[in-house]
Amino acid sequence: MMVLMGADATPEQVDDVMAQIVAQRLQALRLPGDEHIAIGVASAIPPEQRDSLYQLLSSLPGVDHVVHISRPYKLASREFHRVDTVVNVKGVEIGGTRCVVMAGPCSIESREQLFATATVVKAAGAKVLRGGAYKPRTSPYAFQGLGVEGLKLLKEVGDALGILTVTEVMAPEDVPAVAAYADILQIGARNMQNYPLLIAAGRSGHPTLLKRGPSASLDEFLLASEYLLHHGTQAVMLCERGVHPLDRTYTRNTLDLNAVPALKQITHLPVIVDPSHGTGVARYVPAMARAGLAAGADGLIIEVHPSPKTALSDGAQSLTPEQFATTMEELRRIAAALDRSL
Ligand code: PEP
Ligand code: MN
């Protein structure tokens, strides 16, 4: 943290700022400049002291402004953890050289639907089966998922086919049940800042895929991931799934692909791209899936349904099994061009 004094700050005001920093048991460093004096806080500031210190110093007489030098998320940032985190879920590595594709229906509708989808996505090379049992929907009157019945089907199909599973958890009290049935917890975009849910998921220690809120800045996204790490899970994956669009005429969201290289620079956590929710339109999904990998994502999460027209949720953005298989072939070529594999 750095305090920039105003050009007309008096020596007493400078001394007072130095004294206030020292009173917080931190080291203050005076940095004289041509016109302004700057004062650096030379020791590591405990995260819980960061905001209050910023407010205190900003309010002192003679202070022009205060700037943060280090990032507010110590655990998620590369500042203190330079190497990439590779999340290992039962032998499948996410965040390494191999790109991981998670695929399946938006919602689990029946055993037949899930089994059929899982069979085709696995054959095409997906390493994780997705499927929602608890569905946050735009309208509360829409299908909200099969609940525990859906979780049981997910585990049954995952075990039968030998494919990992990921599913959304919406309530803190559901975390133990969802963690018992699924290999990876998904925290949905609408719940990115649901702190009780982040605490429960973090404490479970279960691998967690955190989706970015549609209006969340990258700092807010990373602070939410920090909360998961802080509460005990090391296996955190970030998912860019599109932000609120300027224009909804043609797409549901705007997939923020800038976020991919930016996140890869700032954080060591794996980054997954969701081109299904990112576009909301099946015919745009293959292009944005390819673009996601090209931008540096460690994996993708893609909605696939055996019969998108009759899907109970997100049919318009779901690929058919054939479209998914073709897309996987294209993705293999993109991965190879990046010296990665699928
Ligand atoms: C989903 O994955 O089906 C979902 C609801 O995603 P999001 O939280 O990104 O809207
Ligand atoms: Mn969906």
Provide a brief overview of the structure.
It contains eleven helices and 14 strands. It is an alpha/beta fold and 342 residues long.
Count of helices? Answer: 11
Overall pLDDT confidence: 96
Distance between the termini: 42 Å
Which structural class matches the secondary elements?
Answer: alpha/beta
* Distinct small-molecule ligands in the complex: phosphoenolpyruvate, manganese (II) ion
Shape: elongated
Low-confidence stretches: none
Q: Enumerate the strands of the largest sheet in spatial order, edge to edge or round the barrel.
A: 7-8-9-10-11-12-13-14
Could you give the count of β-strands? 14
Major sheet, described briefly? Answer: 8 strands, parallel, barrel
Order of helices and strands: EHEEHEEEEHEHEHEHEHEHEHHEH
* Helical amount: 25-40%
Radius of gyration: 23 Å
Task: Write structural notes for this entry.
The chain has 342 residues and is α/β, with parallel strands linked by helices. Helices cover 36% and strands 17% of the residues. It contains eleven helices and 14 strands. It has helices at 11-23, 47-59, 111-124, 148-161, 175-181, 195-204, 218-230, 259-266, 275-279, 285-294, 321-337, and strands spanning 2-5, 28-32, 37-41, 63-67, 87-89, 92-94, 100-104, 128-130, 164-168, 184-187, 208-211, 236-240, 271-273, 299-303. The strands form three sheets. It has an eight-stranded parallel barrel with strand order 7-8-9-10-11-12-13-14, surrounded by seven helices. It is elongated. It starts with a strand and ends in a 5-residue tail after the last helix. The relative contact order is 0.12. Phosphoenolpyruvate is lined by residues 106, 132, 136, 188-190, 211, 241, 277. Residues 106, 277, 303, 313-314 line the site of manganese (II) ion.
